[in-house]
Amino acid sequence: MNAPDERTFNSPVDTLYIVPGTDAGAVEDFLLDAPPPALQDKFQWSTVIGPVVMFVLFIAFWQWMHEVGMRKIFDKPGFLLPSPFTVVDQAFLSPGPRSKLLNGLAWTALVAGIGLIITIIVGMSLAVIMARAKWAERAVYPYLVALQATPVLAIVPVIAAIFPEGMGPRIFVCVMISIFPVASNTLFGLLSADKGQHDLFTLSEVSRFTRLRKLQFPSAMPAIFTGFRISAGLSVIGAVVGEQFFRSGGMPGIGIIIEEYRQKIKFPLIYGGLILIALLGIAVFLFFGWLTKVVVGHWHESNR
């Protein structure tokens, strides 16, 4: 058998071993056309210009809706949708409303964080149990689907009767809304480990715990963190929704503050609170996106 032909190219790959019969010219053209790794990782302005342009267009559309759109399209007065400059001035530049909104946001974030932690613990535990026993999946999964499909308003009387006043019912609403993505994504990831690797672990006669720790959980990490990102945003929604239904007891979160401003017809402050809620949701989503890259790294194609 002929030995491989060693060629040296001026490309990201310095030395290439070519099997006899391979078109070396085609390989060289391919390597010379490929950009070096330094250029592949170069900062791209499009990642900044795109969001900036969309933000400017969004502000322009908002201003147009305030001045023209509300009257022409909906036949409503413009004060129902105050201009973005009015919202910034009254909600964020005025010390009193700004302090009240930020304090409310802090309490909402606390409730959402506690609810998310409970969701992750309970959801992953249920997913592990369902992954280990088919009968458990068939017994538990339909109830998770039913819980996801049940409107919060339908069980408000039950929640109010079970939980005392305080943060308890708000945290329960967070868990109720956000548990399904964690449980379902974790279960999907645990069951998606490569069958060949399962056979290898079986031949090695490893324990179930070792299989779970060294095979299934590493394979499931991308799906698990996808569930975390989805549930993080849902937990923020659950905290705000819970505050709308359970206002007595506990510190006033931003949902309660928005309702107070609605009763006083202070629309700029209402939109200021909505902006803070949106920013909180974006912040937790970006945090879990960063955490995904730290934990999963660059070995999975979803992070490339």
Describe this structure in words.
This protein is mostly helical and about 300 residues long. It folds into 2 domains: about 5-40, no CATH class; about 95-304, MetI-like fold. Helices cover about 75% and strands about 5% of the residues. It is globular.
Shape: globular
Oligomer: single chain
- The rounded Rg comes to 27 Å
From the N-terminal CA to the C-terminal CA, the straight-line distance is: 39 Å
| The CATH superfamily title of the largest domain | MetI-like
The total tally of domains equals: 2
Give the CATH level 1 class of the largest domain: Mainly Alpha
Low-confidence parts: 1-18
Tell me the helix content. Answer: over 70%
SSE string, helices as H and strands as E: EEHHHHHHHHHHHH
Strand arrangement across the biggest beta sheet: 1-2
**CATH topology assignment of the largest domain:** MetI-like fold
Proportion of β residues?
under 5%
CATH architecture name of the largest domain: Orthogonal Bundle
Count of DSSP helices?
A: 12
The structural class is mainly alpha
Provide the residue-averaged pLDDT.
Answer: 82
